[in-house]
Amino acid sequence: MNFYEKVYRLVKQIPQGQVSTYGLLASQISSPRAAQLVGFALRSLPAKTTVPWQRVVNSAGMISIENLNFPKEEQVKRLQQEGIKVEFKDGNFWVDLGKYLWQMR
DNA sequence: GGTTTGACCCTAA
DNA sequence: ATTAGGGCCAAAC
After folding, report:
1. pLDDT of A25-78, one tens digit each?
2. 3-class SS letters over chain A
3. Nucleotide minimizing C1' to CA distance for residue A4
């Protein structure tokens, strides 16, 4: 099984209305230090995919997308449609992790 | 097959 | 507390 598949499967398991972080996903997949790889995997996602990539943010709850197929606005829009509050702060979008963070048990 | 890069994280100053 | 730098793992060059 590829690293990508693991990432995709795990991300697909995130329920609607909740979010997760790169580091957390990485810890659950293979090694806790591979957070960057999770982002790398999501980066290679095709424009049309069933993977809810929008529910993945960095450890601080910030959206760091800059130049990709999906602009930040798109992600924020989708998150808001799922009932997640996104606040605009200093040029970036933020999510309250304490409220919406999804933890796998 | 060695080097660079990346939607990041952690530690130290 | 905030900022800066190094490190980690896997793919692309």
Report:
1. 999 987 888 899 999 999 888 888 999 999 999 999 999 887 667 888 999 999
2. CCHHHHHHHHHHCCCCCCEEEHHHHHHHHCCCCCHHHHHHHHHCCCCCCCCCHHHEECCCCECCCCCCCCCHHHHHHHHHHCCCCEEEECCEEEECHHHHECCCC
3. C10
Answer whether residue A104 shows pLDDT above 80: no
Indicate the pTM of the whole model: 0.91
CA of A51 to C1' of B3 (A): 32
Query: Which residues in chain A, range 24-83, keep a C-beta under 7 Å from any nucleic strand C atom?
Result: 30-31, 33-37, 40, 44
Query: A89 beta carbon < 7 A from strand C?
Result: no
